[in-house]
Write the structure tokens for this entry.
Amino acid sequence: MMDKARRKEILKRGRPSGKWDGEPMVGGWYTEEEVEAVVKAVRDSMDWQVGFGFYCEEMLEFERKFAEYCGTADAVSITSAGAGLDMAMMALDLEPGDEVISPAINFYAGHYSIIGQGGKLVFCEVDPKTFCADPADVEKRITPRTRAILPTHMNGLSADMDALLEIAERHPHSKHGPLKVIGDVARACGAGYKDTKVGKKGWMNVFSFHTMKLMTTLGEGGMITTDDPQLARRLRAIRMWGGDTEEYWGGNYKMTKIQAAVGLVQLRRLDEMLSLRHERAVQRTELLKDVSELTLPSEPPGYWHAYYLYTILVAPEWAGEKRDRLMKMLLDDYGVGSAVLNPPTYQARAFVRTHTRGQNLPLAEELGQRLFCPFLHPLMSEEDNEYVAAAIIETVERIVDEG
Ligand SMILES: Cc1ncc(COP(=O)(O)O)c(C=O)c1O
């Protein structure tokens, strides 16, 4: 924690790098290595008799290396996590009335996929310490129609996969057996859970390489990891026109050779990018830990937080109006951007509400009014981070003084 004099000094000094253009929606981190990989991939494809090919070596190598990183038997590269979540729901072969349980506090991609594939979306609450699915609440919502649980490894922290898998085993579907646990790992690539990387546990896990994500393949891209060979075959069939057999429907969800070439470089650099992000987050927590009006993100024992976002909760009595005021003051008076990621999806998207009428989650709604995420990036300097922390403390004190 910094004392008042130090805080004033930091604020007077100003923010060393100024406000970032896209803040709080900042992009990835590229180096000359990625540029060289792009150039090489294009050069290698200049032979008109070769072109880019269908399954190029870069793509196969990226899949092999990604599976190795996550410790899974297989990895299937795709165009985006949104596409991967659609593919996950396709692989479930949902029948009308089949239910999939997923946290209301979420990005809505997975919820669109459930509804889009004809399933019934059933919301659950999150654990307010982790913002990930609360296993006890998930269990309460299981019915004979439940087919799957779709937790999101929210904001960089793994969901409690062991607890969810144990519940899934204990409540098998009468026709399909144990419930499938599918992880949305768009925001947690490289995070740790017990002695594994996120992406290992569960039937499958879906990653995003969108521009804002922890690693990125030129703005879009994704990967699905799994240990189930039959599922991997099915996913490859969906990815490209039914695959080798004519048994399944398929479309085209393949990433490009250039994306895969860049993905290989980003994967090599992932741990370095994550460790800097982690360092900044830990430093921020140290600076803010005595602010009693704020609950800071936690990293429970056995978890390694990738800190895609630094999620703060304001005190319950500051929910809504005061939280909004805090965010506005941070931006207007100190140039510090933050975002609410995320309120319950049924409040964020009318389409989700239309398909989930009558499902209202009190805790999710409360958290949606209390959370905010001041931006964090591995390229932010220690001084930048100090400035953000000083601005947060100063703003909280001003709001307290206002009464
Ligand atoms: C939790 C979560 N799931 C899925 C997605 C969708 O990812 P993509 O942009 O790769 O489709 C996002 C992207 O913002 C996300 O944050």
